[in-house]
Every structure is written in structure tokens, then in C-alpha cells.
Amino acid sequence: MRENDGVxxxxxxxxxxxxxxxxxxxxxxxxxxxxADAIASSVDEHARFxxxxxxxxxxxxxxxxxxxxxxxxxxxxIALHDVDAIAVTSGPGLAGALLVGVAAAKSLAxxxxxxxxxxxxxxxxxxxxxxxxxxxxxxxxxxxxSGGHSSLLRVTDVTTSIEPMGATIDDAAGEAFDKVARLLxxxxxxxxxxxxxxxxxxxxxxxxxxxxxxxRDLERHRFDFSFSGLKTAVARWVEARERSGEPVPVAxxxxxxQEAVCDVLVRKALDAASSEGIEDLLIGGGVAANxxxxxxxxxxxxxxxxxxxxxxxxxxxxxxxxxxxxGSSIVSRGRPPSSYDLPADSSLPVTSVLAG
Amino acid sequence: MPAADASxxxxxxxxxxxxxxxxxxxxxxxxVLVELTSAETLRHGxxxxxxxxxxxxQVGITPRDLTAIAVGVGPGPFTGLRVGLVSARTMAxxxxxxxxxxCSLDVLAVEAVDTGSVSGPFxxxxxxxxxxxxxxxxxxxxxRVSGPDVLRPAxxxxxxxxxxxxxxxxxxxxxxxRPPLRPGAGWLARCVAEERxxxxxxxxxxxxxxxxxxxxxxxxxS
Lengths: 356, 222
Ligand SMILES: [Zn+2]
Description:
The structure holds two protein chains of two kinds. By secondary structure, chain A is an alpha/beta fold. In chain A, 45% of the residues lie in helices and 18% in strands.
């Protein structure tokens, strides 16, 4: 059965709420058409702490929630009463932050007498691509990379069947970007600054290590990632330079570090796709906005006959539209709604697309 | 159970999540029609909406019959407190009805006065964790004189009557403990319906800054 395509579809009108980290996102979709993607970010409040402070994020979610819902409705040109269903990220993420979104979603569902769907954040990162490129090829392989996650997923049905193939065993890829950016005196969040700085540097200037790519590591961790060794290697290299009194070539360090991260991500993602005979690779999460990652993935995938789908950067970072997009697929496929005692689950496994 | 008649004017939904217990009530402005208390402590996020749903069904009304919402704004543990506040704000927004906040210690004070638990001036103290209490002082009519503040019990030890969980937790500092222990939503509804307490915006009374350390400045590199 073919679903409505992403451009002219109608379908359920779904409002999605996302509060798993520091963005308060409220998105509205009809079918797979994006109507609104309102976001309030507390990133500036976290910048001086060098990372997201959970209590600061939770407080910001409470203040932003109703205004962001209002803004989304205005942009979409709908009244809340028109909505067919409410979807919300119920995990994984920061427990206190998730709870604000879940409580708001329940209140909407109850007040509007509309069904509630508690959904998995990672699955939503996959589902969002439908808003841009139409129905998902299923099965597909998803590489999700952000400050909070680095996962390789086999997606058979985005509403029911997602299996983890690999994940980071230490830092998330985005976390490595943040830490290296700090080391180089670049602002938080590090990803966009490293990307920009790297453009004027050489990616082959320094040969940084590629974590978990040695023969022995590949036996146990073929599709897993490790970025903490890389981060340490960058720190040592920079310290050695400083000790010797030489200037640190910031652009070269950024470019070489970025190359090492992207190389491992792309290599393992394509290896996973090939090993499963999957011809579509989807990249999502904040790090998917990295220009080198996109270019490298497209170049190497085309050599293997694998198609690459990457949503535009605004849809890759955390947002409410992705939650609404997944909610819409769930409604269209007739999955049962969640109950009002739906918990926020900070460690919800990706195998649970739809929470109870 | 009498069915509330929305056409008569007022149907107030009240809830408080500032204590370990979730409490929900519906009032018609004169009487509390139903008051429900969570079976378990904590897990506010899981218990609040089902309790509201049950309370409305027991009275035989739908959310659209509500004319106002009352919410306890704390002080209390932040995570649970926010569940109540975001729920109150969101419901009020959808239903286009006003939402009134009340300091949760004031709710305890009004109940203590009206039930005769206290007669002169008194103190309300609730559990602020970390060996501290949230504390406010009241006159004999139950009007707040000072506070709320977050304080160490030993620093504010008193022989005055002390209402709330603080006295039960710190009897050395507060030997004259009096009921009630935790705020009840029926009393919260009365506070709003009868304007017995200061009506505030539905903003949380955190009284503490977030725990967060500013890391040392990054080493500049050339
Ligand atoms: Zn994410």
C-alpha cells in the first residue's frame, strides 16, 4: 500500500511536541506535509556552562511551552481543535525535560479529547525525512548523530520495527565536536564552528585515529563507534604543539578531526547497509548538518549504488515536526494510542517506537 | 455525587503537585464536588492527568465545562512542580479559561485555620530536601506575613505551631507540629473560589537557582 506522497497529501493533522534536550519544539503536519515547526531554544543559557544543564533546560521548557504551541498554530493557520492527534517524545532524553513535554501533551490530549501518542525520539529523527523526501524506503539504514546519540539503526517499519545495529560506546559524535571546539577555543555548540573553521584547513594535515576500526575491534564492534580516544588524541596533539611554543593551526586541527569523525561514521554506515543488502541510507540528528559528512556520505555511497537521504539542517536538529511526522505515520497505520499514565522514559530503547 | 451544572457559572479544576502526593479537586465555587489523591507518592507526571480525567468523569463533566483552573505553584521539588504548572497552563490555554496560582504553603495555612488546627499566629514548613524546609509565617487568619523562603530548620527553630511536613521531619526544631501535612486540592479550590489567598500568576516558586557549575575558562589557543 502506498502512502500519500509528501507534497500534496492530506492525512491526519498531528501536533508533535519535543522537549528531550534544550529545544522546545512544536510541529504540526498534515499527512507528510509540514505546516509549522516552531522552536524555542535555551542554547544561549547553556553556552556559559559549556553543555546543557538539565534544570536550566527544564525551566526553559515550562516557560516556552504555551507560547511555542501558539506560534505553531498561528504559522500552520489552524486552531487547536482541528488537530486529530497529539504526539510527544516520551524518551530517550533528559528526564526532567521530557516530563514537561509529556505533561503538556497529555493536557492537550485531555482538553481536546484527542488521542495521545508517546513516541521514541530516535524514531522521530528517522520519520522526519518523510516531510522532505516523501515516504521512507523501508527497509532503510539510519545513521543518527547528534550531541546525544550516535546510532546505526535498521528500519523495517518506522512505526513498529527498528533494530539497533550499533552505537557509540563512549561519547556521542556531537559531544566530541563540542569538546574539541572547547579545546580550540571555539564557542558552544561546537559542530557548526568546527565545520566553518575546517573549511580553511587541511583534512589530511594530521592523521588522527579512527576509533574501533582496527581488525580486533571490528570483530566485537563492527558497527559501534568510539570518539573518546579521538578527543584525547586531539588534546594531546594540541598540548604538544603548545609546549613546543609553536602556534596551533586551528583550522587544520578542526579539519583533520572532522575528517576522522566523518570517515568512521560513513565507513561504518555503508558497511552496515552493504552487509544488510540495504540500498537507502538516511542520516539524521544535529551532526547530519555537517557539510563534510553529507559530502563524504554521498560520494562514497554512490560508488556502492546506495542512495543517501539527508533532511535539510533545520529538520535534522531536534524539533517538533519530527515528532509530528512520526505521529502522523503512526496514526495512518492505525497503531493504538498511549494512555494518560504514559511515563517519560529517559532511556527508552529504540526498539520501542510507540510507548504504552 | 452531584453533577456540576456549568450553566450555573463556575466549575473550577484545582490541582497541586508541590508535595510527594498529587491532589486534584473539582469545585462549583461553593462546594468541593470531588477530591482525589494519588495512590502513590511521586511520579507526578504519570499520575496527574489520569487523576484529572477521573475527577471530571466522577462529577460528570468534560474539560470544556471548566471555567477556571487553580494550581499550586509551590515551593516544592521542581520536577513535580513543573508537571502541575505546565498542565495548568496548557489546559487553560486550550480551554481559553483563566488559571490562578496559589502558593502551596498558603493552602496548608487556610486549611489549618479553617479546621481549627491552629488558633494564633503560626508557621508553615514543607520538605525542601537537602536538610532544608520551605517556610512561611502566617497571622491568626491564615494570611502570609513572611516568606516563603528556603531555610535550615535549626536556623528558624520555633515553639510556635508548625503546620506541614517540616515539623514531622524536624521535630527538634519544630516541636509543636500540627496538621495538615500536605496540601489538598479541595482547599486549593476554596482558596481561589473564596479568594482566601493571594492569587498569583501560574509561575513556579523555585526559591533556588539551578545547580550548575560554570566550567573554568577554556585555554586559549593561538
Ligand atoms: Zn535528537
